[in-house]
Amino acid sequence: MSSRGGSPRSPGSSPRSPGSGSSPRPRDTNPIQSDDFRSSVRRVRENPQYRVAALAFVAFVGLFLVWLHWLGLIVAGALVGFVSPSLRSAVVAGFGFGVLVVVLFFLSVGVPASRLLDMTPVIYISVASALLLPLFGSLVRGLEKEA
Predict the structure, then answer these.
(1) Which terminal residue of the chain has fewer beta carbons within 10 Å of its beta carbon, N or C?
(2) Cα torsion for 64, 65, 69, 74, to the nearest 10°?
């Protein structure tokens, strides 16, 4: 039989002494709110090479989300805004993502743009939503406190 505390791996085992091996991770820390995450995001925002790579990655993820549902336009705008260094650059990145979506939309339809532009009410709504929804999503960058 085992002692009162059980085996070292059992749930009822006694706590480790301060000098024994590695200490367990405290349970009250949130990995998303940790300083490591914030410093990583800050490093991406401040280094142009990292920022370009991050923008390319989140734009690819955003295009996948847009392909699934139109709400992906807002989420994609929030993603490109999140990796931007300032609110102004986030808005520009959101609008740029919207332009990318419009260009890919016109290329994917396969008909000449003049025929597509003849569908006036529908095409206006499609182009306006593709440009403005990512821009709206990029405003999430303004919610973060600058520290």
Answers:
(1) N
(2) -140
pLDDT digits (tens, 9 = 90+) for 2-23: 555 555 555 555 555 555 555 5
CA dist 96 to 14, 87, 122, 132, 141, Å? 57, 14, 22, 10, 15
117 Cβ partners below 8 Å, 6+ apart? Answer: 123
How many angstroms separate the CA atoms of 33 and 83, rounded? 16
| pLDDT over 90 (residue 112) | no
- CA-to-CA distance for 12 and 78, rounded, in angstroms? 45
- φ, ψ for residue 84 (rounded to 5)? -85, 145
Helix (H) or strand (E) holding 55: helix 48-68
* pLDDT at 98 (0 to 100): 95
